[in-house]
Design a protein that fits this description.
This protein is mainly beta. The protein is built from 1 helix and 14 strands. Helix content is about 10%, strand content about 60%. Strands 1, 2, 3, 4, 5, 6, 7, 8, 9, 10, 11, 12, 13 and 14 form a 14-stranded antiparallel β-sheet that branches. It is elongated and about 70 Å long.
Length: about 270
């Protein structure tokens, strides 16, 4: 019995040693941390900022130094998020509210961008890092069938349709001092159509004319893993008013865009800059 016990003990020890040896021979698996927008308090990013004309060309003389600073964490509109202060040439230009989970980023929008009465504040998912192949997702939709709109010095009752979608727009490149890093690109598409019937005084036909007011705005976001937002673009856009049939009252109103391009950053918890 003693010999059997001894042999079993030796076999057990050899088995354990063999297991340890086999484990030590396995290559070390490094965990790749993924954070496309590190938002610790005190993190900052500095950008070149400039405005663009209707052809997306830089407008000379509009160049400024822009920076975004993570000021604090907060709970707002049902989500935990971060307050980011946007400074332009040393003055506060805007405040951004960003929230995130393990796969997505959210931005809080208000009626300064979303032209909808009573819109208030709402979180929109602007990035989903699990998406590929230019996958689009629906963000927001509303239809007001009694929207009061001032047209030709007359308040008319109109139909006002707002649709917002987001999309993964592929990958890009961001160049740093140490090399080129892959980015993930997204855009938010804000599409509005306002339409109504109107009787122009100089065209007193038997039927009123259909009037359409169209606007399409794009915001572009480019994120780099463990760096953050490396490019943020608002495309120039137009607001077009047309009539059917054409009675000579078509109008086009152009609006400039802007571009932010990252030039420097600092992440407090990592010391990276």
């Amino acid at each position: 019995m003693k010999n059997i016990g001894y042999k079993l003990s030796v076999l057990a020890v050899l088995s354990i040693l063999g297991l340890i040896a086999s484990c030590s021979e396995q290559p070390t698996q490094l965990v790749q941390l993924t954070d496309y927008f590190p938002l610790s308090k005190g993190n900052w990013w500095i950008y070149n900022y400039y405005e663009t004309d209707i052809y997306s060309t830089k407008i000379p003389g509009t160049e400024k130094l822009d920076s975004i600073y993570v000021e604090e964490e907060t709970d707002l509109n049902g989500r935990h998020g971060f307050i980011l202060i946007d400074y332009r040439d040393g003055q506060v230009a805007d405040t951004l509210f960003i929230s995130k989970d393990s796969i997505s980023l959210y931005m809080l929008f208000d009626d300064s961008f979303i032209d909808i009465p009573g819109f208030g504040h709402q979180w929109f998912r602007i990035a989903d890092f699990t998406k590929n192949n230019n996958i689009e997702w629906h963000v927001y939709d509303s239809l007001d069938n009694n929207y009061q709109f001032l047209f030709e010095d007359t308040t008319v009752s109109s139909n006002y349709h707002n649709t917002i979608n987001a999309q993964f727009d592929g990958t890009g490149k961001y160049t740093t001092e140490t090399g080129t890093i892959d980015t993930k690109e997204f855009f938010l598409k804000y599409d509005t159509r306002l339409y109504f019937n109107f009787r122009f005084p100089e065209n007193p036909g038997p039927e009123p004319v259909e009037v359409d007011r169209l606007r399409l705005k794009y915001l572009h976001f480019s994120f780099c893993n463990n760096i953050g937002l490396v490019e943020y673009i608002s495309d120039p856009y137009t607001v077009r008013i047309s009539t059917n049939p054409n009675v000579g009252h078509s109008k086009t109103e152009s609006h400039k865009g802007w571009v932010r391009e990252l030039i420097r950053y600092k992440l407090i918890n990592t010391g990276i800059n």
